C-alpha cells in the first residue's frame, strides 16, 4: 500500500468515481457502492490505495457496519462482505480510538465487531476474526452501550490467541456486561468454549459471580437443555487445577433467584451424566428451591416417569453416605410420594415406599396419598400403598384421621371405593370407629343408596382382622344407621340392617324412632308396609305410637293413613306393643286428628284424649 495515490491506475479512478457518487444518507446507495466494489476488488491490479485518501475513518466504519449488518441485502452476500473486509485490512487501514474534547479516550463505542457478534452466529467465515485485525488495539475497551466489549466477543467465539493478548494488555478477566451482568466466563460457557473458560480461570476469573438473573457460570452449564457432563467435568477439573475447593472458594450449590441449585437444573432437564457428576462431589441433595421442592420432588412431579433418574439420586447419595430425605414437604405440603401418586408414577411409588416414604403425611389441602388414590379410584395405586409401605406405616394408613376427624375407612366409603374398603378392612380397619360427628361406617353407607351394596362387605367374618359392626351405634345426635337408612330412602340398607338385628324402636336425642322419620317424608308412602313387613320377617316388634321429643309426626297422605289404620287394627289383634293405647294415647287418635288436615300438612301436636269412649276408636269411627 502506497501513501501516494496512483491516479493513472484505472482501479483507483473507478474507486474515486464510486466514492464521489455516494449519498451517505441513503442505505441503498451505500449498498450499491459495496456491490460495485465486489468486482473491482476481485479484479484489482496494481498497488492498493490508502483508503484515508478517499474516505474519512467514520465513512470506512459505516461501510464495514453496512457490510456485516445487511449482508443478505448485498449482491454476492457474505462473499462480497468478507472480500471487502480483507481489502480494507490489506490496504493497511487500522482503527484508532476516539477521544473527547479534553483528549480523553472514549470508552463506549459500538463497532462492526459488535454488530456482527449480535447476529449470534458462532462463526461465519471468520468475519469477526478478520474485523479484529482492523480493530487491533487490545489495550482499548471497545464496548457498546450495554457494556459488551471486544473482550467479551473473543470469549464468545473462542479466539484464545486474542484473549491472551487482551489479558496481557491488562484486561480484567471479570469485567461485566453492564446490561446482563455476564462475566467473560458466562459468555464462554454460553458458547461451550472449553479452552476459553480454562484460560480465564487460570487468569483469575471468579466462578462464583452471578449475573443479573442470579446465574453463576456453573448454572449456565446446568440450565441449558443440551447440558452435558463433559463440559461440567472440564469446568470442575479446571476449578481443582487452580486449587479452588468446592463449597468454600467455589460454591457449587449456589441457588439462583428461584432457589434452584445446579442439581435442580440438571434433574429438571434429565441430564443423567451431569446428575451423576454432581452427586460425586460435595453437594447437598436435600436443598429446596423457592417452592420448597428438592431434586427428588422435581423427578416425582415430572409428567413422564423417570425411574432410572430416581435410582441414580439414591445410589449417588448412598455411595457418598448421604441421606436423601424422602419425606420433605414443599410449601404446599406435598411430599415426593404425594407427587408420584398424583402423577400415577407407580414404579416410583413402590421405590419411595421401600425407601421409607411416609404414606400418612398430608399436604396443606389435607390430602394424603391414600386420599388421592381414593378420590381417583386408583385400585392399583391403593394396592401399592398397602403392599410396599414399611410395616410401621401400614397401621397408621388404616387409623389416621384427616383434619376433619374423618377416618380412612369412612373416606373410602364416601368416595365409593370398594377395593380400598377391602384393603382397609383386611389391614384391621374398625368399622365401629366414629368420626367427629359420631358416624361409623354403617352410618356413611346408610345415608346413600348407591353405597348400599358395600354394606355387605362389612359383615364378612371369614376375612382376616374381622371386627363385627355395631348395627345400633349412635352418632352425636343419637341416630342409628337405621335412622339414616329410613330418612334417606335407602331400602336396601334398611333391610340389611334389620336382618342384622338393628332395633327399629330406638329413639334419637329428639325422641324420634325410624318410624317417625319415615312418616315425615313425602316420598315414603310405601315405607309403612315395607317397614312392618321387614320387622315381621326379622321378628322385630315395631312400636306404632311412641312419642318423639316434641310431637307426633304426621303421615304425609291419606294413603299412608289408611295403611297405618289397617296396620293398627291388625296389630291390636296380634302382638302390637300398644302400651299407650290403654291410656288413650294411641296412634289411632293421632291419625284421626290428622285425617282432617291436608295431605301435605306438617307435623302437628298430638292432643291427649281424656274421653275413654274414644280411646280405642280407629280413624273413620266418628262419634
Write the layout of secondary structure elements.
Elements: H1 10-20, H2 27-42, H3 57-69, H4 77-90, H5 112-118, H6 127-134, H7 150-157, H8 160-168, H9 184-190, H10 194-202, H11 217-223, H12 229-241, H13 262-268, H14 272-279, H15 295-301, H16 307-319, H17 336-342, H18 346-354, H19 369-376, H20 379-388, H21 391-399, H22 408-414, H23 418-426, H24 441-447, H25 481-487, H26 491-499, H27 514-520, H28 527-537, H29 558-572, H30 587-595
Helix pairs in contact: 1-2, 2-4, 3-5, 4-6, 5-6, 7-9, 9-10, 9-11, 10-12, 11-13, 12-14, 13-14, 13-15, 14-16, 15-17, 17-18, 18-20, 19-20, 22-23, 24-25, 25-26, 25-27, 26-28, 29-30
Keywords: ANK repeat, Repeat
ANK repeats: 180-212, 258-290, 332-364, 404-436, 477-509
GO biological process, one term: regulation of gene expression
Helix content: 40-55%
Strand content bin: under 5%
Task: Please give the alpha-carbon distance between the first and last residues.
Answer: 142 Å
Secondary structure tally, helices: 30
Order of helices and strands: HHHHHHHHHHHHHHHHHHHHHHHHHHHHHH
Name of the top-level CATH class of the domain at 430-564: Mainly Alpha
Question: What is the typical, i.e. mean, pLDDT?
Answer: 82
Rg is 45 Å
| CATH architecture field of the domain at 430-564 | Alpha Horseshoe
Counting helices, strands and paired strands, the structural category is mainly alpha
Indicate the low-confidence ranges by residue numbers: 549-560, 570-623
What is the CATH topology assignment of the domain at 430-564? Answer: Serine Threonine Protein Phosphatase 5, Tetratricopeptide repeat
Number of strands: 0
Largest sheet: none
Choose one word for the global shape: elongated
CATH superfamily of the domain at 430-564: Ankyrin repeat-containing domain
InterPro entries: Ankyrin_rpt, Ankyrin_rpt-contain_sf
ANK repeats: 180-212, 258-290, 332-364, 404-436, 477-509
GO cellular component, one term: nucleus
Keywords: ANK repeat, Repeat
Amino acid at each position: 500500500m502506497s501513501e501516494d495515490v496512483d491516479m493513472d491506475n484505472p482501479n483507483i479512478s473507478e474507486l474515486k468515481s464510486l466514492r464521489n457518487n455516494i449519498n451517505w444518507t441513503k442505505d441503498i446507495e451505500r449498498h450499491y457502492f459495496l456491490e460495485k466494489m465486489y468486482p473491482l476488488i476481485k479484479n484489482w491490479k496494481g498497488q492498493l490505495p490508502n483508503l484515508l485518501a478517499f474516505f474519512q475513518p467514520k465513512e470506512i466504519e459505516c461501510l464495514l457496519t453496512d457490510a456485516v449488518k445487511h449482508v443478505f441485502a448485498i449482491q454476492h452476500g457474505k462473499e462480497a462482505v468478507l472480500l471487502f473486509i480483507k481489502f480494507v485490512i490489506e490496504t493497511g487501514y487500522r482503527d484508532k480510538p476516539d477521544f473527547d474534547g479534553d483528549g480523553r479516550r472514549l470508552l463506549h463505542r459500538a463497532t462492526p465487531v459488535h454488530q456482527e457478534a449480535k447476529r449470534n452466529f458462532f462463526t461465519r467465515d471468520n468475519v469477526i476474526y478478520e474485523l479484529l485485525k482492523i480493530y487491533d488495539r487490545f489495550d482499548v475497551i471497545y464496548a457498546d452501550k450495554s457494556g459488551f466489549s471486544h473482550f467479551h466477543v473473543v470469549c464468545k467465539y473462542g479466539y484464545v490467541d486474542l484473549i491472551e493478548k487482551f489479558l496481557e494488555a491488562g484486561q480484567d478477566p471479570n469485567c461485566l456486561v453492564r446490561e446482563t451482568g455476564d462475566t467473560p466466563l458466562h459468555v464462554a460457557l454460553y458458547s461451550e468454549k472449553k479452552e476459553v473458560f480454562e484460560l480465564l480461570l487460570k487468569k483469575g476469573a471468579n466462578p462464583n459471580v452471578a449475573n443479573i438473573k442470579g446465574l453463576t457460570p456453573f448454572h449456565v452449564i446446568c440450565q441449558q437443555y443440551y447440558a452435558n457432563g463433559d463440559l461440567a467435568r472440564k469446568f470442575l477439573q479446571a476449578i481443582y487445577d487452580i486449587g479452588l475447593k468446592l463449597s468454600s472458594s467455589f460454591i457449587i450449590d449456589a441457588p439462583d433467584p428461584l432457589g434452584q441449585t445446579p442439581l435442580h437444573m440438571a434433574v429438571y432437564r434429565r441430564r443423567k451424566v451431569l446428575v451423576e457428576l454432581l452427586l460425586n462431589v460435595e453437594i447437598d441433595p436435600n436443598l429446596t428451591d423457592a417452592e420448597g421442592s428438592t431434586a427428588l420432588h422435581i423427578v416425582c412431579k415430572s409428567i413422564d416417569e423417570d425411574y432410572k433418574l430416581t435410582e441414580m439420586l439414591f445410589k449417588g447419595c448412598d455411595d457418598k453416605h448421604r441421606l436423601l430425605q424422602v419425606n420433605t414437604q414443599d410449601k404446599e405440603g406435598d411430599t415426593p410420594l404425594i407427587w408420584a401418586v398424583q402423577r400415577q408414577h407407580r414404579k416410583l411409588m413402590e421405590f419411595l415406599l421401600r425407601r421409607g416414604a411416609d404414606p400418612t403425611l398430608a399436604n396443606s389441602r389435607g390430602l394424603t396419598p391414600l386420599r388421592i388414590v381414593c378420590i381417583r379410584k386408583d385400585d392399583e395405586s391403593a394396592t401399592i400403598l398397602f403392599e410396599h409401605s414399611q410395616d410401621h406405616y401400614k397401621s397408621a394408613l388404616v387409623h389416621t384421621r384427616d383434619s376433619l376427624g374423618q377416618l380412612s375407612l369412612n373416606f373410602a366409603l364416601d368416595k365409593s371405593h370398594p377395593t380400598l374398603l377391602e384393603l382397609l378392612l383386611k389391614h384391621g380397619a374398625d368399622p365401629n370407629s366414629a368420626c367427629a360427628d359420631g358416624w361409623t361406617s354403617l352410618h356413611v353407607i346408610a345415608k346413600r343408596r348407591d353405597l348400599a351394596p358395600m354394606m355387605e362387605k362389612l359383615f364378612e367374618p371369614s376375612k382376616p382382622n374381622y371386627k363385627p359392626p355395631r348395627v345400633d351405634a349412635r352418632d352425636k345426635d343419637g341416630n342409628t344407621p337405621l335412622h339414616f337408612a329410613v330418612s334417606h330412602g335407602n331400602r336396601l340398607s334398611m333391610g340389611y340392617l334389620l336382618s342384622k338385628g338393628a332395633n327399629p324402636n330406638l329413639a334419637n336425642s329428639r325422641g324420634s324412632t325410624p318410624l317417625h322419620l319415615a312418616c315425615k317424608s313425602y316420598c315414603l308412602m310405601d315405607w309403612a308396609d315395607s317397614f312392618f313387613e321387614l320387622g315381621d320377617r326379622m321378628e322385630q316388634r315395631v312400636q306404632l305410637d311412641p312419642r318423639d321429643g316434641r310431637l307426633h309426626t304426621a303421615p304425609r297422605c291419606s294413603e299412608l293413613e289408611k295403611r297405618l289404620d289397617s296396620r293398627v287394627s291388625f296389630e291390636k289383634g296380634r302382638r302390637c306393643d300398644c302400651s299407650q293405647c290403654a291410656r288413650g294415647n294411641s296412634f289411632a287418635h293421632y291419625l284421626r286428628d290428622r285425617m282432617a288436615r291436608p295431605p301435605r300438612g306438617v307435623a302437628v301436636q298430638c292432643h291427649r284424649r281424656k274421653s275413654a269412649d274414644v280411646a280405642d276408636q280407629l280413624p273413620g269411627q266418628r262419634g
